[in-house]
Structure formats: structure tokens, C-alpha cells
Amino acid sequence: MDEPLSGLKGKQIAEYDYNYWYLETTVNHKIKEYYHKEKDIKMVVLEKETRKGELFVKLPHSLWITKDGYPPLVTDAALKNPLGLKTLYFAGLPTVQSKDHIEIFDDTLRKKLKEMDLDYDLLSKKIKEGEVLKNFPITGFVYIKEGKLEPEIFREFEKRVLEAYECVLELKPQKCPVELFIKNILGPTTIREYHLFKGEGFDVPFSGQKAFFTMMMDFRSPQQSENPIVD
Questions:
Q1: What is the mean pLDDT of residues 106-126?
Q2: Which of 45, 86, 180, 197 could form a disulfide with 80 if both were Cys (CB 3.0 to 4.6 A apart)?
Q3: In Å, how far are 18, 105, 161 from 78, measured between CA atoms?
């Protein structure tokens, strides 16, 4: 899948190739980082494949986009074959605080997904009911297709999601506790993902999963609350 079709992507400033094998499983990551100086937007793009024999989980193009004063945008595009073929696409705004941000994101995607003959309100039901993220406010949607791999649909989703997020960024900012969400990702979410992969038959070490999330989503410099150790 090509790079994001959006004005949010700035200059590429980093690339992380993180690859390993553990027991019978190989995991390959390519993480590209961009920074749009004029808009002060950071974008991380992930390509990842986890494979054990005929079992695989491919993430051809997932995003983590942040801008101070706004909720981050998270997308997860997955093609899976551990327990049967499955296509999954998730897009959401975790930690969103502003009702205006929620409304414009939802309204835009409601219209955009209708172009694909999809019902946004139906796809967002799990999000709205707290099945995806229980400890933080969030809006967004989840698309799942069992028994089929649909890589071509990811581009259609991504361009519409990015258009919706650009609408959010045009509104008045409202600070979001992104740092708390990141801590949750590096803690409970990492543990949950470890057990998920293990349940699907993969050999993925907890430390390897945590390292991936750290490179993908953690801050690039220490936060003020993280005081250095002084001898």
C-alpha cells in the first residue's frame, strides 16, 4: 500500500527496521516517522508481519498521528490467517475530550463510509459501547470481514479517515491526556496483545511486543514527569 494520501504527512525524519525471530515465529517491522513542521504534526507509519509457518498477521499500513491539543489518530489495518482468514480495520481518536471533535469526526465518516455502502453507526457500535477501549473516551469504528482478505479496502478507509481527522484539526484545540494512553499501551495493552498472539499460535515474547509499541508510539524525549536518576 502506498504512503498516506493526505496533507498531514511532512518530511520523513526517521526509519526503524526492527526484526527478530523467536522459537518458530518471525516478526518484521518497518516504522517510518514524519514531521510536518508548519502544522506541528507527527506521523508514524507501520508495516509489520508476524509469521509462523502458514499462520500470519500482516499490518500493511497502520498509523499513529499526533498534534498537541488534539486527540491522536490511531489506525490498525490487519490481514490475518491464524484461525481462518480475516480482514480488520480500526480507526479511532483515543482520549478525545471535545464534543465538537467527536461530532465532526463521526459526521464526516458517516458520510464518507456511506460512499462505500457501509453504515458508520453500526461499525462504531463496539467503540461507543466501550468494547475496544474501556479506560479512555474514544470515537471511531471497527470493520471486520471473516473468511476473506481485502487489502484493497484499506486505501479506501484510510483516505476517508484522514479527511475526517483533518476536519478535527480545523477546530479549536482541547488538550487530551495522550501520555496516559501511551502508558496504557505500554502496560495493559502489551500484556493483552501478548496473550492474543499466544492464543493464535504465535511465539511472540512479551519484551518484543513491548519494544514494538515503544518504538511505534512512545515519546521521542523524556516527559517532564520523568525525572532523571541523579547519583
A1: 97
A2: 86
A3: 18, 22, 16
Cβ-contact 13, 45 below 8 angstroms: no
Rounded CA separation 109/75 (Å): 14
Rounded to an integer, the average pLDDT of 24-43 is: 96
Write phi, then psi, for 2 (nearest 5 degrees): -70, 175
Whether residue 200 is predicted with pLDDT greater than 70 in this model: the reply is yes
Model-wide pTM > 0.90: yes
Cell 459501547 sits at which residue?
A: 129
CB-CB contact of 41 with 8 (8 Å): yes
Give the residues across from 33 on adjacent strands: 14, 44
Torsion sign across C-alpha atoms 217, 221, 227, 229: positive
Nearest-Å Rg of the Cα atoms of the chain is 18
Q: For 57, left (φ over 0), alpha (ψ -120 to 50), or beta?
A: beta
Stretch 6-30: mean pLDDT, rounded? 95
For residues 174 and 101, give the distance between their C-alpha atoms in angstroms, rounded to a whole number.
9
Q: Using CA atoms, how far apart are residues 157 and 108, in angstroms rounded to an integer? A: 12
pLDDT at 115 over 80: yes
Give the whole-angstrom CA distance, residue 25 versus residue 55. 9
- Cβ atoms 156, 1 nearer than 8 A: no
Q: Which residue has the cell 461499525?
A: 123
Q: In this structure, what DSSP letter does residue 187 have?
A: I
